[in-house]
Description:
Layout: E1 2-11, E2 14-24, E3 29-34, H1 40-47, E4 55-60, E5 63-64, H2 70-76, E6 77-81, H3 92-96, H4 98-102, H5 107-120, H6 125-128, H7 138-150, E7 156-160, H8 168-185, E8 188-192, H9 196-202, E9 205-210, E10 213-218, H10 220-225, H11 230-236, H12 241-247, H13 251-254, E11 266-267, H14 272-282, E12 286-291, E13 296-301, H15 302-306
Parallel strand pairs: 3-8, 3-9, 6-7, 7-8, 11-12
Antiparallel strand pairs: 1-2, 1-4, 4-5, 9-10, 12-13
Helix pairs in contact: 5-7
Bound molecules: adenosine-5'-triphosphate.
Amino acid sequence: MIVLDRLTKRYGNAVSVDQLSLTVPTGTICALVGASGGGKTTTLRLINRLIEADEGRVLIDGTDAASLAPVALRRRIGYVIQSVGLFPHWNVARNIATVPDLLGWKRDRIDRRIDELLDLVGLDPASYRHRRPHELSGGQQQRVGVARALAADPDLLLMDEPFGALDPVTRDGLQAALLDIQARTGKTIVIVTHDIDEAIRLASLVAVLDGGKLIQHGSPHDLLARPANAFVEAFVGGPRRGLRLLQVTRVRERADFSEPIGGTPIDADVTLDIALERMVTTGAHRLPVYDRAADRRGTLVLAAIASPDGRQT
Ligand SMILES: Nc1ncnc2c1ncn2[C@@H]1O[C@H](COP(=O)(O)OP(=O)(O)OP(=O)(O)O)[C@@H](O)[C@H]1O
């Protein structure tokens, strides 16, 4: 678990991060979002002490980060940035081995770890191990950046706009890869993004920052359903808030399990946007639903999707 406790950073008279308190439970992906200059990058850098706080503390599993030596901190926290920051004259393997080398791991352990990580991020070790960064696409470089950050098996991964510069298809693939890595490793991840759709897809906890202050935090559904103020409302949704709500609400929450109908069912675990898409493309106003977890069948009607509180009218 990571706890930010009244974290504050000033530059001259300007406050970049202002009394920021936030708890990120272990195994959670937390997205820091908000307008440009809101203090997202500064917060990330305060967590791994690339910059020092003027006030407040960062606790990593109960330990004050200020009490950890820099090498210990680097081992516990992986860091991925948009420009990747791979060393251009080192090959992929050596780039990934940066922190294990620093920690004095034995050669064969490092080699095993490099192959394991390349597999994890979806790059074939035999083809990519010896390439230099300029022989990789932007998306492949970003995958190597993630592998490097995970090399010493840190508890916490900090990612600053990691997929920001990539085309939508590559970005989509890397988001899926990150979700898969998180599911397999259970890492705690804090990611800065400008892209609210990325935050909604990846994070179970979204923190909205403005002027260095935490304006609201909660699940994507919380923020979309109950934005705390006009800033959050405009930021998380604007004219697409209703559509995004469909992306974070599951069919099971709106289906009626008392009256099943026949036909090929839709999975109760999929989100309402998928169900609506099926209704639009097939012209159906009701869909059969199957809830695998409870082995029950039901029905989803169009009116239940449109109703904000889930009641059918
Ligand atoms: N080294 C610095 N010296 C002076 N001011 C700084 C410094 N670093 C950041 N700031 C200021 O702190 C504020 C927060 O910056 P920060 O980079 O954390 O915002 P951000 O939310 O990450 O923005 P963006 O989305 O544009 O990357 C900004 O007003 C910025 O100008």
